[in-house]
Design a protein that fits this description.
- The protein has 199 residues and is an all-alpha fold.
- The protein has six helices and no strands.
- The chain is elongated and about 55 Å long.
- Helix content is 77%, strand content 0%.
């Protein structure tokens, strides 16, 4: 059985991936079907992906898993440096996403392409980042860390688990995620389907 921390990381990656894929789907839907964008929904999704990684996900990785892995082996240093730099890059890309969304709101349809590029850039970074963690760092950690390392890491991860689907979901994130589901049209959520304008 894998350490609890690794299961939590994979679960949080799945949650974030679902939200990011939903964001890409909504952008494509607005572009392809020429429907009016739901800026409230886009803003809520950006709020979620802005706060979730930085408040819940990355601190656990940096402060516990990465720190203990660095203490046990130098083999992980290069990839951990990359991952920590990507955590900071993700914060910058979120600001770019918010800026692109604001431009889209004021410029109309012309702003959609810039927002779509910003979304794709952010999603690509996160996909690459998650693959590095799951394909490189996690197997290395399983080999290098001792049982006492895992006991401490698992305890820290359980104390700060997934705020949406974990054992102790945070009301703020549960509410945000539920709002996304309620506002998003099928097949992503249960919100009202948006129709393309009649031609």
């Amino acid at each position: 059985m894998p350490p609890a921390a690794l299961t939590i990381i994979r679960d949080e990656h799945r949650t974030l991936t679902a939200v990011l894929q939903g964001l890409q789907f909504l952008v494509k839907d607005v572009r392809d079907r020429e429907i009016a964008p739901d800026f409230e929904l886009f803003t809520i999704i950006l709020d979620y992906i802005d706060v979730f990684p930085d408040r819940f996900h990355h601190p656990k990785e940096n402060d516990h898993l990465f720190k203990r892995l660095r203490a046990r082996t130098r083999e992980a240093d290069a990839v951990l440096d990359e991952l920590e730099a990507e955590h900071a890059q993700g914060e910058r890309l979120i600001h770019e996403l918010r800026h692109a969304l604001a431009l889209w709101r004021v410029s109309g349809r012309e702003g959609l392409a810039g927002f779509a590029r910003a979304v794709d850039g952010y999603v690509d970074l996160h996909w690459t980042h998650m693959r590095k963690e799951e394909d490189v760092v996690m197997p290395l950690a399983e080999r290098a860390l001792a049982p006492e390392d895992w006991a401490a890491i698992d305890a820290a991860f359980r104390a700060n688990d997934d705020p949406v689907f974990g054992a102790k979901p945070g009301q703020e994130f549960r509410r945000l995620f539920q709002l996304i589901v309620n506002l998003a049209p099928p097949p992503l959520g249960v919100g009202e389907a948006r129709e393309a304008p009649k031609r």
